[in-house]
Amino acid sequence: MIAAAQSGFDLNRDVFSNQPVRDALFVLVGLLVFVAFLLAARFAAHIAGEQLRKRQVRADMVVVGRRVVTAIVILVGVFAALGFAVENANVPLFGLLVATIIAALGVQDLLRDYVSGYYVLWERHMRVGDHISFDGHAGVITEVRLRVTILKADDGDVIIVPNSELFTKSVTIHGVTPKEEEARKEPPA
Predict the structure, then answer these.
(1) Residue 81 contacts by C-beta under 8 Å, 6 or more apart in sequence?
(2) Strand runs (DSSP E) across the chain, as ranges?
(3) Residue 130 sits in the same domain as residue 162
(4) For residue 26, which of 81, 91, 93 has the smallest C-alpha distance?
(5) How far apart are CA 168 and CA 187, in angstroms?
(6) Is residue 73 within 8 Å of 41, Cβ to Cβ?
(7) Which helix (DSSP H) or strand (DSSP E) does residue 7 occupy?
(8) What pTM, to 2 d.p., does this model score?
(9) Phi and psi of 139, rounded to 5°?
(10) Is 14 helix (H, G, I), strand (E, B) or coil?
(11) Residues 18-66: pLDDT tens digits?
(12) What domain range is 157 assigned to?
């Protein structure tokens, strides 16, 4: 110990800057934050699983939901812990930005279907009972939802069409004249 003190090595001082050791404290706080997020992930996954079971969701989807919630909470915990460990708030913000970009790219098609469905419902060019054909598919519209339109084909098959398909491709509505089309657009008096 005396030899270490004489050579200038001190456990209470940083080796490179000879400043008091603070980084170890922040690394320890970062580890504690990460452990807290691990515990929170288990709790959040349990709550998510219970809520999905209450809604009578299939068991395999409950497992998937629990895993997604766990992964999201742990990912947030990793970035929060790194932010504490390196004493920089930019790390969690960068993590949030990356997660937002990934999520936006992941739900891009889903959002396109919902927005297209809004316009399909709003413009009312196609209605339940219309016989339509597009892109090699043909059938009678049985239901128009916000994300998908359901057709019943002439042979009895059910065709589920994302609304973005109906919105971006040419659709033929069989048996509707242009005059009837204009009458459809007018609100009922």
Answers:
(1) 30, 31, 33, 34, 37
(2) 131-134, 137-144, 148-152, 158-162, 172-174
(3) yes
(4) 81
(5) 25
(6) yes
(7) none
(8) 0.51
(9) 175, 180
(10) coil
(11) 555 566 777 788 889 999 999 999 999 999 999 999 999 888 888 988 9
(12) 111-174
